[in-house]
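Handoff note, outgoing to incoming analyst
You'll be picking up this chain. Sequence as last confirmed:
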Amino acid sequence: MTHVRISDALRALVFAPDPALELHQVIDRYYAPDYTHRSDGKTLNRDEFVQMAAGIRSKVTGGTVTVLDELTDGDTYAERHVFRITLADGTTQTREVAIFGSFAEDGRFRHLSETGFDVADIPTA
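Most recent structure output, in case you need it:
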């Protein structure tokens, strides 16, 4: 079975969304109906996650994600990445994030827990 990847989900949701797809179509592609998301000690159900994603999507004008580590074992998933985003006001943010979670039977995410920290911006040439 093919499993989804968080880097692909981030690109489709926030960094480079396809204007022909509605947010719910992207969510359905990567996240199971019973999806839960835990970040900074707070667990969101799927509806709350959709609201969060919509809010972020409205503020981000672009971004990149670099996968540092990614492992799957059966229905278990772990990944570490660095993302850099540009916000509508022109500011940038760079964060390293570690994610642990599980897949649903169909290969979409059932649950993800994440934690991360800000990384100093590296000047681009």
